[in-house]
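Hi team, as promised in this morning's meeting, here are the two structures we talked about. I've kept the exact order from the run log so nobody has to guess. The first one is mostly here for context; it's the second one we should focus on when we meet again. Sequence first, then the predicted structure tokens.
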Amino acid sequence: MSFSNEKTLILGLQKGSIPSFERIFSLYHKHIYNFCLHLFQSSDEAQETVQKVFIALWEQRVQVDENKDLASYLFTIARYMVYQDFRHQVYKKAAFDHFNDKSNYTNESTKDEILFNELLTFFESLIERLPERQREIFKLNRFTDLTYKQIAEQLNITENTVDTQIRRALKFIKDEYKTHYN
């Protein structure tokens, strides 16, 4: 696709044009799907991630830079979501392995597992309550291990803004945790 055609599609997308979105979807969904399928080895997980990628594209459409490569932007979203899913799976497996010690499996460890899952769910809900841009910055830093500089470049903001948003997110999470568990 030529740069000018892609730029026209992005400008249409930014304005909320459904035909522009559908065209972008038809151009890129197979590539994103194949990328996700290669990583997940599961058609269902790959398809679910593709849906999340295009939902995120629609939700963030006004932030898409028409002067940058759309494919790169979409693959960045897909990679972030795949890593986020992998990280979540690793945490769940680690928690399960920790609490599933076959030699010491007692009611106490079941209680610990329930409390851990409750705490994990609580933290996930706190993150989802953050303002949209703050949540995006926080997740990019904490779940994809991007540096403040990388986040600033990706989102076209200053490193100081990234730092401020992450500090605010951490303060909110800490305050809510104290309120809930004290």
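And here is the second protein, the one for discussion:
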Amino acid sequence: MGTASEGLAPSLDDVDAIRADWQRLAPHLDTEVIDMVGRILRAAALLTRRGDEFLAGFGLTRGEFDILSALRRADAPQSPGTLRTVSLASGPAVTKRLRGLEERRLVGRAPNPADGRGALIALTPAGEDLIDRVFPRLLELERTLLAGVPAGERAAVVHALRAALASIESAPSGPAPASLGTAVAP
């Protein structure tokens, strides 16, 4: 039996089983979206879990790594607000992460000359050294995890994921449309 890395279609997976169960229980429902959403969520959860395990070996959480990475890519110190936007984290979460990184002397805080009440955050030499050691190794882990995607299909996968992300990002936020009804109380 061939493997996905040999270019053969992957075998049925848990998402196929979930969709089949729903089709059996409610054949009138269009469950096609489960094929994409189920796989995106499962892939994200598995990548996150493996990445978190790896980063823990360096004493980092994913959120701390994201901040160190954003600071490394930046040309100048960044405000906590900018780091919140880049990391998609809440203000309190960024504050907590920055506090921990500062206590470990991986980042430094200086007054923001453009805003007397604000601060600018920069990597320390220790923070720069850490991110420079961790990032290439994390890339290698992720490359290993995705090695089963045939090289000839990677561009198509990226294109499809880009389209899915654009669709999700452009969808209106807030309450579900009235046509979807209301949530059932537990």
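Starting points for discussion:
Residues 1-7 have pLDDT under 50 and may be disordered.
Residues 51 and 141 are 8 Å apart (CA to CA).
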